[in-house]
Design brief:
2 copies of one chain form a homodimer. By secondary structure, the first copy, chain A, is of the alpha+beta class. The first copy, chain A, contains 10 helices and 12 strands. The longest helix of chain A is centred in the middle third of the chain and has 20 residues. The radius of gyration of chain A is 19 Å and the shape is globular.
Chain lengths: 314, 314
């Protein structure tokens, strides 16, 4: 008999990683969303409950990031059964930590466990991307790929899907500070509606190229020289109160680099090992608190695991 | 007794490689410049002769790309002797094949052979860059690094110097067709004096990132999907008569990608092996001839050697 119930967790993610706007992301195993799915006898999707959401989320399955992909899955696979979905948010909305991608990733992994045949990695990504697109208007996959597959992922195209794992530099940890302020992704995108200078683009391209080579060569000195965003960060930083102080605090602790996670307002830093990571995280959190915010602080290896089944159904 | 005379060859290079404007280049061992240096008893640089130049080149050592770095070398190393330099051009001026870089690279390698102590790789690059800057106004190092060190080189900064070798995909060869037309590098730069759209930047960044990952993963399918220039090529292609036909001819032969070499007008294609490379090169040459040009055609492994001593002094 087929499985009746499954529960999956998908991690938060750091989108862009300073150098790869809309292209790169990595998983953060310290926090994420959890989705539990109970098999229904009818081919439909029902949202049973959404727990721990800091704002009301859509209960219409076609409009919820966790379930829009499942609606497509039922239709395309001609399933005779359906999914009753319970979403438990671990990631705050509009935090820049890839909450939409996390819900969509956890959901497809839980749903897959109820299928007779497993999905391909490509299908998993594609269905989850449908969910993410519902939330963000345009989904780029730079949060979704690491939420699903873990580690650092490069997404250079979603049609056709082109995802490439990038080796994480050994021992590097990510410190992420999330101030309790919400940034509308659309607002964060609006500041980018301008022309750009070729010189800046070449500079930023060099950072991206140097970052990738540093990851492949496992070269922390080179990583430190290239983990920066001179193109997008200067436009978005003014939207994040306290950003400059937080960044300076991280760099003063010897962080390899520090920038905005996704569209913000969360700020991440890559650090040489767990001890340096904890020191950096404390300094970043203090700087955000000094700017008047409550802060959630997370520490995770850069090479964190992606979405997986959890709990009794593991 | 110190060596009295040395002769060095440095290869032509393909700058940009479609994806890495001002950042990437690779060596082409089929053609290059040769510099012969005879020791002088006085600490000065004299240009004895310039052979095979298609236009007159500066005979003032401070203004010639092959010798400007040597003038600095004598001053900074407090040399008691000097260099009489004979330059033999193999690379046509304004061909987009990195002729300035090649002369500068060959010259420093020949001069180094007369020194009591070897230069560091960094010094070699730095002195040669002085020469290249004389010719091109602004030197980026994307031709010079592969001319000196061979293979594919990534230059993300020249101050401080940051050069990283990128592994060449196995067995890939470069077909390069040089039409007998000259393109002024400054004119090719002038068409870039405009604003750019972020969307195009992201697309091009994805091509760069995908290309680098493909090189590190030795993945030709991925390479083929990313070896393209959607940012610069559309602006420069109209300056090169026959470009579209040449590119289509290369792609029709199954080339992995085809674009402008450096600032043009030479056009290069990366191909799966020597046989495919020769077929592609023939098709590209025919297309340029049909457009009314004489053509020089070169075939080389992408992983070609850099500058080295040649001849009796090897």
């Amino acid at each position: 008999m087929s499985r009746q119930r499954a529960k999956a967790f998908a991690p938060a993610t750091v989108g862009n990683i300073a150098v790869g706007f809309d292209l790169l992301g990595h998983a953060l195993d310290a926090v994420g969303d959890t989705v539990t799915i109970q098999r229904l006898d009818t081919p439909e999707v029902v949202i049973a409950d959404i727990l721990n959401a800091d704002v009301p989320l859509p209960m219409d399955p076609e409009k919820n990031t966790a379930t829009a992909g499942l609606v497509r899955l039922i239709a395309e696979k001609n399933l005779s059964f359906g999914f009753e979905v319970t979403i438990e948010k671990g990631i705050a909305l509009g935090s820049g930590m890839g909450g939409s991608a996390s819900s969509a990733a956890a959901s497809i992994v839980a749903a897959e466990a109820l299928l007779d045949e497993p999905l391909s990695a490509l299908e998993r990504f594609d269905y989850a991307l449908t969910g993410e697109a519902v939330a963000s208007g345009a989904a780029h996959g730079d949060n979704l790929a690491p939420a699903l597959f873990g580690g650092i992922q490069l997404v250079t195209s979603i049609d056709p899907v082109r995802i490439t794992p990038i080796p994480a530099p050994e021992g590097v940890v990510c410190a992420l500070a999330h101030p309790h302020a919400r940034l509308d992704t659309r607002k964060a995108r609006a500041v980018l509606a301008r022309d750009f200078d070729l010189h800046d683009f070449i500079h930023q391209s060099g950072l991206l190229a140097g970052f990738l080579a540093a990851c492949f060569h496992n070269d922390l000195e080179m990583l430190e020289a290239h983990l920066a965003d001179i193109l997008i960060e200067p436009l978005r930083a003014p939207l994040i109160v306290g950003f400059e102080q937080v960044k300076q605090a991280a760099l003063a602790e010897g962080a390899l680099g520090c920038s905005i996670s996704g569209a913000g307002p969360s700020v991440f830093a890559w650090c040489r090992g767990e001890e340096a990571g904890q020191r950096t995280l404390d300094a970043m959190s203090t700087a955000f608190r000094d700017a008047g915010f409550e802060v959630d602080a997370y520490l995770s290896p850069v090479d964190a695991r992606g979405a997986r089944l959890v709990g009794e159904n593991q």
